[in-house]
Amino acid sequence: MNSIAEGRATFGRVEDDTLLRGAGRFVADAAPAGQAHGFFVRSPHASARIVSVDIDAARQVPGVIAVLTGADMDAAGIDGLSRHIPMTGRGGKKLVIPRRPALARERVAHGGEPVALVVAESMQAAQDAAELVAVEYEELKPVVDVRDAVLADAPQVWPEAKGNIAIDWPGAAPDPDANADAVDKVIAAAAHVARVTAVQQRIAVASLEPRGATASYDPAADAYMLRACSQSAGALRDHAASVMNLPKEKLRVITEDVGGAFGLKSAAFPEYIALLVAARMTVRTVHWMSSRAEAFLSDNQARDTVSEAELALDANGKFLALRLRVLANMGAYMASPGAHVATNNMARCLPGMYRIPLIDAQVKCLYTNTLAVGAYRGAGRPEANYLLERLVDEAARLTGIEPAKLRCKNCIPPSAIPFKTAVGMTYDSGEFAAILDQALALSDYAGFKQRRREAAPRGKYRGIGLSCFLEHSGALPLEGAGLLFPGDDSVVLALNVQSTGQGHATVFPRLVAERLGIKPGQVRHRHGDTNLGVAGFPSVASRSAMTAGSAIVRAVEAVLAKGRAVAAIMLEAADADIDYRKGAFEVVGTDRRVLLFEVAARAAELAKSGEISENLDTKLTTETPVTFPNGCHVAEVEIDPDTGQLKVVGYSAVDDCGNVLDATIVHGQLHGAVAQGLGQALLEMIRYDADSGQLVTGSFMDYGIPRADDMPPIVDDVHPVPATTNPLGVKGVGEAGTTAALAAIMNAIANAIPGGGADHMDMPATPEKIWAACRQAQQKS
User: 274 with 224: CB under 8 angstroms?
Assistant: First the structure.
């Protein structure tokens, strides 16, 4: 393993040195000598029946080892890939989950779906042979837009999903119909009702390192190994083993460095399963690395919802009720946790940091002939917050109450916490009005009018936008940790959660060192190997610090409890007289002491001889309740009305992520997340041709992502209110910037352009859209 996956925490951020020197070890860097190469034949159609697949010519290409099709997957006993938590919709109907094959056999449901795998001695030979695989298709009419998929005459993606509906989710209330009636009555009688239709466009994950994997098979042990970029080797192993109908111990998964993940790399993809089958058929190590073009055609995508929202207010601007109706595009297959993201994950973010007594949030999840929609940074949180904060700004325009004042008026006060929301969540901590005030001061909100006046003589429109947010972090409560004593003056910290840029090798060993009173350099961080035997879930949902951190704290406590008993034997004292501090056990009130590592060595001897039941090596799992990160972000923009060019000239952020374990990492997570939020607000959008279902934005020539010069100066601060639900008092931070940035930027654009021309502008706010809105404003004036 490399110095990140198995390294000593000796200084500052231990990840930086290795990566900056180009010495990281990613999937493509782990190539063994003599490995074979895989290349996938992909469907050119969005919807079609497969009439025949002819692989004879491809097999004759020099260097070709094997050509696999869907028939080979069936012969190997491969199950469908789609896995999802059970969900029940309206009328008790279960979530519809069509079978997703590793290689398509009877039909294809989206462009780029893999149909065959060519394995050859070189990548060039595999690619040449793939061009000779002859697939005859009977093309069918596709549907790509969720608004079209819900129509009565829409093409049906799957016969078992009538009306293309995967699930019609009536909301989180115990009695959804009664709840909906109550909300209807309040809205009908309200003094003011703000209404917004918001589109969350489909976006690509576009991780720096595309997906890739290397599969091998050991005939003697009848066991497999898969090296893959993942967010948890354990979670990937469990999914892949389930699909292959294998005992888990027959598949080892290794993940080393990962070049970006953001939710994409949590589960097994069709390619990984096909590679494992190929490794067994050929008894060769088979490697595949996605090209960027393949990534656009095969990676799970994100967002893609259309929502109608209404917020009822009384005559004084008090929030009374919220109603949402959402159409969510699942793509052609059900990725995990696709429907959960669009329903529960989204709804649990409501009502944000506001007191809204009644909430009716209903969601229809629909299938289309597009790539599956999966988790991506935020995963339901940006969707909820964007809708809510655009709605609050609309309410401010409707009532005439200044946006900051309207937000402050409706913030949940500290005296109301713990606060149970209308969707059943309980906020355990938070100082929401104080965070809003801090963000207003940090952004010099009061001085904005003067800056706007100064921009006018230069011919520029200037705007400012607020975005308060609250999200839930944690989601999957169970996580494990291990503390292992190899026999020297060190301890191995074994984790399941995978670092994909979050700084695990810096933060977690330091946490162990602080709790044990030893030097950080004495703690070796290991992850990314299912042979470690540590249970848990992927590093998603801003969960790692709280769940793995809690498991580490409990593991340290367990080690010290076991060590105290061994130290008592060594020091010939009663257990109750043994204390632990600064890396040693000592007899209270004396100078008699024994070092932790001496106790660990003695415990190993006693356990081996049977005098005690176990040594100090400890693996355990804990369950950590969710936390509620929150904050307020303020964006300031300047627009050239003659060209539609926009510049984000200022960005201020105040976040409550609970106790801060590492300030540098918190700032880095925030800045990276804001960049991804800015990308969605201003640049990014996946487009499919409505008639053919072909991906139009299939490269970075057509799909824009932020560059360094797109990013504003960011001034950020924290307002830590410790969580009460975990021993470290931490909350998540990794998704906060993306959750907040969308509405902050779009509200700033609406504020900048006079006459309401951008009040209901959809993302991305391209120069063309902005120019058109400015022209409209000029014509009105």
Answer: no
H helix and E strand count, the chain: 21, 29
Whether the link from the prior residue into 764 is cis, omega within 30° of 0, is yes
Residues contacting residue 453 through CB under 8 Å, at least 6 positions apart: none
Peptide bond into 337 cis (omega under 30): yes
* Model confidence, pTM: 0.94
User: What value does the mean pLDDT take over residues 452-473?
Assistant: 97
Residue 6 banded pLDDT, cuts 50, 70, 90:
very low
**Residue 779 parent element (H or E):** helix 767-780
Biggest CA pair distance of the chain = 91
* pLDDT at res. 207: 95
Q: Which amino acid is at 480?
A: G
- For residue 335, give the nearest of 268, 404, 254 by alpha carbon: 268
Task: Give CA 667 to chain center in angstroms.
Answer: 18
21-42 pLDDT tens trace: 999 999 999 888 899 999 999 9
DSSP 3-state of 304: strand
Distance (Å) of CA 748 to CA 193, 455, 465, 637, 669: 22, 15, 4, 6, 23
Interval 172-227: pLDDT, tens = 888 999 999 999 999 999 999 999 999 999 999 999 999 999 999 999 999 999 99
Distance CA(222)–CA(227), nearest Å, equals 17
Whole-angstrom Cα distance, residue 345 to residue 347?
A: 6
Across 124-279, where does the E strand assignment appear? 134-139, 165-169, 192-203, 212-218, 223-228, 251-254
* List of domains in the chain: 428-473+627-781 (3.30.365.10), 478-623 (3.30.365.10)
Rounded distance between C-alpha atoms, residue 547 and residue 527, angstroms: 15
> Could you tell me if 749 and 646 are in contact, meaning their C-beta atoms sit under 8 angstroms apart?
yes
Interval 629-651: pLDDT, tens: 999 999 999 999 999 999 999 99
Distance CA 559, CA 564 (A): 8
Nearest residue to 632 (alpha-carbon basis) of 473, 741, 747, 760: 741
* List of residues 6+ apart from 711 with CB closer than 8 A: 648, 674, 675, 678
SS3 letters for 353-412? CECCCEEEEEEEEEECCCCCECCCCCCCHHHHHHHHHHHHHHHHHHHCCCHHHHHHHHEC
Please report, as a single letter, which amino acid is at residue 232. Answer: S
**Mean pLDDT over residues 34-58, rounded?**
98
What element of type H or E holds 130? helix 123-130
Helix, strand, coil fractions of the chain, as percent rounded to 5? 35, 25, 40
Q: Is the dihedral of CA 74, 79, 81, 86 positive or negative?
A: positive
On the question of a cis peptide bond just before residue 418, with omega within 30 degrees of 0, the verdict is yes
- Torsion angle defined by CA atoms of residues 555, 558, 560 and 563, in that order, rounded to the nearest 10 degrees: -120
DSSP H or E run through 151: none
Nearest to 659 by CA among 740, 725, 739: 725
Asked if omega into 351 is within 30° of 0 (cis), the reply is: yes
Plot region of 12 (φ>0 → left; ψ -120 to 50 → alpha; else → beta): left
Residue type, 269: F
User: Nearest Cα to 755, choosing from 649, 641, 643?
Assistant: 641
Tokens of 363: 């969601």
The DSSP call for residue 464 is E
Read off the tokens for 582: 């600064």
Confidence of residue 386 (pLDDT cuts 50, 70, 90): very high
